[in-house]
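Troubleshooting log. The previous structure file for this entry was overwritten by mistake, so regenerating from the original sequence record. Sequence copied from the archived sheet and checked twice against the printout by T.R.
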Amino acid sequence: MDRSGRRRRPRREENSAPWMLTYSDMVTLLLTFFILLFAMSVIDIERFKDTIISIQSSLFGHTGIMESPREAGSPDGVGDAEIDARALDLGQSLLEKAREAEALRAKAELFLARAGLEGAVEIRIEERGVVMELPNQIFFERGSAELKPRAREFLKGLALFIREIKQRIIIEGHTCNLPINTARYPSNWELSAARSVGVTRYLVETQGLAPDRFMATGYGEYQPVADNGTAEGRAKNRRVTIVFSLSK
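Regenerated output below.
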């Protein structure tokens, strides 16, 4: 109160920056997206951090999520309106990709249920797409790249599923760390590559799918998902991974 007894009005902040509204809207939009993505799947923390850094760098040229953005009229000449438009476009693109991933996973889960493999096959969403992790025992005998009869039946159904979607497909072969040295497969590199190629060729040559939708690759023993020190862990590492890539 002043000397006359009247209550003083609180002073307004004279230095409130106009870019704060735009910046806070952009951060809220990105935060909403990542909460949605986290709710759909388990996100690798390091990938999450890398994505945040990438977005920050592309929009503002720095990597700290709480750092102040460049002021309007900076040497780069990027104004608030342009930043807002970029953030909105980016948010819409990421949201569309999240919806695409969730819809694709739902379709894949329905296919697995119809194939009688619900619960036996892991399916998850990653940054690169929807990933289907199939145990090696469904496809191959140990040390072999010859498809089992059960695998051929599964791939027939998978081919029908692939015809209903638009995504490109990556087939990955993985082995455990037990060494192999035969005339046909001198190492696990050759064995894993032969397995991924065998799956891909069956889908393309036998089931008539377009070859330009596929990529086959072998990782050998070098991307384990479990401990190779136990028989159970080695069994998990011997697997075929099918990746349904999300559109860019």
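Residues 19-96 form one domain. Archived copy saved in two places this time.
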